[in-house]
Amino acid sequence: MSRKEDKIKDTNKDIKDQMEEAIDNAIDEVDGKDENTEEQVDTKEQELTEEELLKEDLQKEKDKFLRLFAEFENYKRRTSKERLELFKTANQEVMTAMLPVMDDFDRAMNELQKSGDKNLLKGIELIHNKLRETLKAKGLERMEVEQGSDFDSEIHEAITQVPAPSDKLKGKIVDVVEPGYKLGERIIRYPKVVTGK
Question: Total structural domains in the chain?
Answer without folding.
Answer: 3
